[in-house]
Every structure is written in C-alpha cells, then in structure tokens.
Amino acid sequence: MKPAVFLDRDGTLLEEAGYLDRLERLAFFPFGIDAVRLLNRGGYAVVIITNQSGVGRGMYEEAFVLRAHQVVDERVKAGGGRIDGYYYCPHHPEADIAIYRRHCDCRKPRPGMLRQASRELGLDLLRSFSIGDKWTDVQAGVAAGARGILVRTGYGRTSEAAAKRPVEPVTIADDLIAATAWILRNGSNSEPRGPSPEPRSDR
Ligand SMILES: [Mg+2]
Ligand SMILES: [Zn+2]
C-alpha cells in the first residue's frame, strides 16, 4: 500500500476563486504542478479532496466540477505530474437543491472522501498527509488516521490566526511547495535522517 498526499483543491493547489464556477477562473499557483510532480517522485499518490457545496447551492453543476478536474488533470500531465484520483463532496446540510441537502460523511471535516480513496486506490492512511488552507482539511486528515498540514495560501492566514485550533497540524507551511519539501524531509517515505557513515553516491 502506498502513502498518499490528499490535496485540498481551492486555495491550496489552485488559487482561491471564491466559488470556482467558470474555467477562466481556474488558475494554478505557480508552484502547484511542481509540487505534485515532486510528491509523485517521492512515492506518494496525490489525490484531490474537495468540498464543492456550490453544487448543492445551485451555483454550478457536477458536470462542471468534472470538467474542471479534466482541465486540472491535463495541465498536471503536461507538467510531468500525476494526480491519482479526484473526490468531491457536492452536499451541504442547507443546500438549495434537495438531492444534495444532507449531513453526509464526505464533506470535510469528515473523513469519508479520504477513506473512500484509501479503499479504491489502496492507500496507507497512516503514512499519508492531508494538506489544505482550512482547519477542516487538517481535521479530515487526522480523522482518517493521516497527518495534517495547514498552508498559508488561500484562507490559510485567516485559519492560522484563529483563536482556537480544532486539531494540531504536524506543521504549518507557507504554501504547497513548502509543505511538499517538509513531507519529503520528514515523511515516512523519506530517507532516515541523521549523519550517514558514507557519502551517498546517488545524490
Ligand atoms: Mg481550500
Ligand atoms: Zn458529501
């Protein structure tokens, strides 16, 4: 079983656009695709985990979410990276559209999407990370048995300034590329730390 990095989409991989409802507003952070590629190379599956209550609110349809993920996928592939799965929650307890109005298990901070991804993709949650700009991203990770990292992009600075942290992240990083560097240094797939007796010839 592979470890994974569960990535929040908006404000973490993509710039926060309020509700992303048009493809013209889809913009990667400049480091986004590099981060995905580095995580792939580090042996991590990369999985997008995103709350999309805009669907339940009637702001855009599920087809648009799927189309946006196609575009994300094409651009990541063109940059030499790979995203292993996309999971979104269209629900909200107060959604305007009745079929989406419910207390579901998938909406973060609940861990349903991470668990589903783990089952479907064969991922080792205990060696995995959840990265996002909201505490709910960190909470979902911890609830699934993984470790959480908060990033300061998107709503991250506001999250960091909150009087009360609902859960402890393993670190708070400036952005996704800094979080990636932290994982590659400290994650379970990283080389053992400390001085090695012989200089390694493969670095
Ligand atoms: Mg976000
Ligand atoms: Zn849901």
Describe the protein's architecture and organization.
- The structure is a single chain.
- By secondary structure, the protein is of the alpha/beta class.
- It has 7 helices and 6 strands, in the order βαβααβαβαβαβα.
- A 6-stranded parallel beta sheet has the order 3-2-1-4-5-6, with helices on both faces.
- α5 links the parallel β4 and β5.
- α1 packs parallel to α7.
- The protein is globular and about 45 Å long.
- The protein starts with a strand and ends in a 17-residue tail after the last helix.
- It binds magnesium ion and zinc ion (ZN).
Short account of what is shown:
The mean pLDDT is 94. With 203 residues, this protein is of the alpha/beta class.
Secondary-structure-derived class? alpha/beta
From the spread of the alpha carbons, the general shape counts as globular
Distance between the termini: 26 Å
Overall mean confidence score, pLDDT: 94
Which molecules are bound in this entry? magnesium ion, zinc ion
Q: Strand order across the biggest sheet?
A: 3-2-1-4-5-6
Instruction: Say how many strands there are.
Output: 6
Tally of helical runs: 7
Biggest sheet features: 6 strands, parallel
Task: Describe the SSE topology.
Layout: E1 4-7, H1 32-41, E2 45-51, H2 53-56, H3 62-78, E3 85-89, H4 112-121, E4 129-132, H5 135-143, E5 147-151, H6 156-161, E6 171-173, H7 176-186
Parallel strand pairs: 1-2, 1-4, 2-3, 4-5, 5-6
Bound molecules: magnesium ion (MG) and zinc ion (ZN).
Which key features would you list for this structure?
single chain, 203 residues, alpha/beta, 7 helices, 33% helix, binds magnesium ion, binds zinc ion
